[in-house]
Amino acid sequence: MSVYTTVEIPQLEQFLTRYALGKLRDFQPIAAGITNTNYYLDTELDRFVLTLYEQHSNVELDYMLGLQQHLANLSVRCSEPVKDRNGNFYSQLNRRPAAIIQRLPGEVVTAPADRHCALIGAELARFHMAGSEYDGFRTNPRGIDWILTACDKLAPGLEASDSYSITSTLDDCRRFRLERLPHGAIHADLFHDNALFEGGELGGIFDFDYACNDSFVFDIAVLLNDWCIDNDGHLVATLVSSFLDAYQQQRQLEAIELEALPLMLRLGALRFWLSRLYDMSFPLNGELTFIKSPDEFRHIHQLRSTQTDTLNELLLPHHVR
Questions:
Q1: Which residues belong to CATH 3.30.200.20 in the chain?
Q2: How far, in Å, CA of 183 to CA of 214, rounded?
Q3: pTM surpassing 0.70?
Q4: Closest to 150 measured CA to CA, from 60, 279, 34
Q5: pLDDT, tens digit (0-9, with 9 covering 90-100), for 57-94
Q6: What CATH number labels 9-102?
Q7: pLDDT score for 35
Q8: What gap in Å lies between CA 102 and CA 191, rounded to an integer?
Q9: Residues 213, 140 contacting (CB under 8 angstroms)
């Protein structure tokens, strides 16, 4: 359960006086997520999520919550923060920065189908176009610099074949010069359990903990590696096509982005393999939730690294003509 910081009802009621949301009706912990404390919060006005941020700095919260507001203002379907009576996105609750977020409609789809991939593809394109206009900036907290640091710490426990595979991906990224890719604000963690659907329509995107400025195609790769795969981690052509076709109806990918996508699929898999391995090797004090196994993304990284020709063939129909 993702409750690191317990909130008592009297504390919450005092906190709510800062908002114009009416009286408290219901308050329940959310048994999902990893890094923050989350509660469902119902008031006389509406249904919300209360989040207490356990690790983020004020600068990071300004970026994350500001981005959500920016996207919502431009009609991107995403979780939207609620400002208090003083116009603040967050304030202190039980010694933690806390924010109230509008609760999105719908449920998580456990096995995305073609329609779900098309809907999220179109919305991610709108996200990227809107995000390119966002004036905040945050370096990717799990970008290349973090990967290099994590590799140094994890090196003693890595098998020689794993070290070679990691080095190969990083060397290819260096040769490609990723800074040439179109950049802007991205989600960076858009797994299928960070989006909700209702009645066959997208309810919205949430969980902006890793939102940052990086390449749009990296964001796409992270999504494809989770939404568009079979049970063994192989990309499913129909799901990939549904996503990319819908994305490109909103935002046409540049030739360099499509050229980079096979490499970004490797880098995206590497990022989640190493972050899960790092969390398992160096767990946080007071960790109260499960740690996801790194094996899934180790396997996906191996697949993406050894099936380059297959990936190029899969992506060829989507290249700019």
A1: 9-102
A2: 5
A3: yes
A4: 279
A5: 999 999 999 999 999 999 999 999 999 999 999 999 99
A6: 3.30.200.20
A7: 78
A8: 20
A9: yes
Dist. CA 145–CA 126, nearest whole Å: 28
Distance of CA 107 to the CA centre of its chain: 17
The candidate with the shortest Cα–Cα distance to 18, out of 79, 100, 78, 95, is: 100
CB 166 within 8 A of CB 240: no
DSSP bridge pairs for 96: 93
β-strand pairing of 212-215 with 183-186 = antiparallel
Distance CA 282, CA 58 (A): 24
CATH number of 114-318: 3.90.1200.10
Give yes or no for residue 38 having a pLDDT over 70. Answer: yes
The answer to whether the CB of 181 falls within 8 A of the CB of 256 is: yes
Distance CA 127, CA 283 (A): 33
- Three-state SS string over the chain comes to CCCCCCCCHHHHHHHHCCCCCCCEEEEEECCCCCCCEEEEEEECCCEEEEEECCCCCHHHHHHHHHHHHHHHHCCCCECCECCCCCCCCCEEECCEEEEEEECCCCECCCCCCHHHHHHHHHHHHHHHHHHCCCCCCCECCCCHHHHHHHHHHHHHHCCHHHHHHHHHHHHHHHHHCHHHCCEEEECCCCCHHHEEEECCEEEEECCCCCCEEEEHHHHHHHHHHHHCECCCCCECHHHHHHHHHHHHHHCCCCHHHHHHHHHHHHHHHHHHHHHHHHHHHCCCCCCCCCCCCCHHHHHHHHHHHHCHHHHHHHHHHHCCC
Residue 184 has pLDDT above 70, yes or no: yes
Our CA angle for 64, 70, 76, nearest 5°, is 105
Q: CATH 3.90.1200.10 in the chain, residues?
A: 114-318
* Residue 247 main-chain phi, psi, to 5 deg: -60, -45
> What's the whole-number mean pLDDT along residues 239-257?
96
Does the CA dihedral 293-40-210-71 come out positive or negative?
Answer: positive
